[in-house]
Design brief:
The chain is mainly beta. The protein contains 1 helix and 23 strands. Strand 1 and strand 2 form a beta hairpin.
């Protein structure tokens, strides 16, 4: 989704843009705001599952993982949304939730905090899958880390990290997180064989990393351009690994699967990326 603009409550002038490595201050945690939707809104949940919000009033808050939480008003069902950190130039004294309109059916639910930071969840008014928000990439300093959530359903999870050829990086996946492939729950190491291996055997060679485990945490270097077909210099990561960057470019992460079969994937795994030298 492209950058969205709004001014004084009218959808046209406040600059809201992706910000690198934002860290929401403690005073912003758990700040709530309410919003009234006049149209149905389709968003993505934390695990990649679709979330549908019908017209009505909602309470918007964030949690310690910097994810937007939407609760119907009066209190009812809670939905945790896939979110991205953003920056803004509004002068606010309290948190404020807004619905921004992009091109066509593109919509973005945002929660803005005092101090110029906030969270954004991209979606649409039609249920058509929104385009992934691509964070701007930058080079990490030695010892610096970035933690991201890798969604199993995403063909490429752009990290906002530029790998530099010859530099060394350590990857550490959360042992508590899992992905789900056709009902099979697995961690970042993936699995060597399907529950019904005879059904999977014909597809092994079609995996993006053909000789690696199904659903192993994997990475590569690429270009977020819509014309880019896939990542280059692909490599496996698993639960943990230290690598020397094979080339310079934007790091993307993914669950190793057949390119056309991401639609039935669920879950997410958090992974920390640290430049060590």
């Amino acid at each position: 989704m492209k950058r969205l603009l709004i001014q004084a409550g009218v959808l046209s002038g406040l600059f809201v843009a992706m910000a690198p490595l934002l860290s929401l201050a403690d005073e912003n945690r758990y700040q709530a705001s309410t919003i009234t939707l006049s149209e149905t809104l389709y968003l993505s949940g934390l695990t990649g599952a679709p979330v549908q919000l019908m017209p009505g009033s909602y309470s918007i808050v964030t949690d310690e993982q910097a994810s937007l939480i939407v609760e119907s008003s009066p209190p009812g069902k809670r939905n945790v949304l896939k979110s991205e950190e953003i920056a803004h130039i509004e002068e606010l004294t309290i948190a404020e939730a807004r619905l921004l309109q992009g091109e066509g059916d593109e919509r973005s639910l945002v929660l803005l905090f005092p101090g110029g930071k906030g969270l954004q969840s991209a979606g649409s008014s039609t249920g058509i899958q929104p385009r992934q928000i691509v964070p701007p990439a930058r080079v990490l300093n030695v010892g610096e880390s970035r933690t991201i959530r890798v969604i199993a359903k995403e063909f490429i999870n752009w990290t906002g990290v530029t790998l530099v050829q010859g530099q060394r990086y350590r990857f550490q996946a959360s042992p508590k997180d899992t992905w789900v492939d056709s009902g099979v729950r697995i961690n970042a190491d993936g699995f060597a064989a399907c529950p019904v291996d005879a059904l999977c055997a014909p597809f092994r060679a079609l995996r993006r990393l053909p000789v690696a485990n199904w659903f192993v945490m994997s990475g590569g270097i690429g270009d977020p351009s819509p014309l880019a077909l896939d990542l280059r210099h692909r490599f496996t990561i698993g639960d943990r690994r230290t690598i020397t960057a094979p080339a310079t470019g934007h790091l993307g992460l993914f669950a190793n699967d057949v390119s056309t079969m991401y639609w039935n994937n669920e879950g997410s795994i958090t992974i920390a990326i640290t430049r060590i030298e």
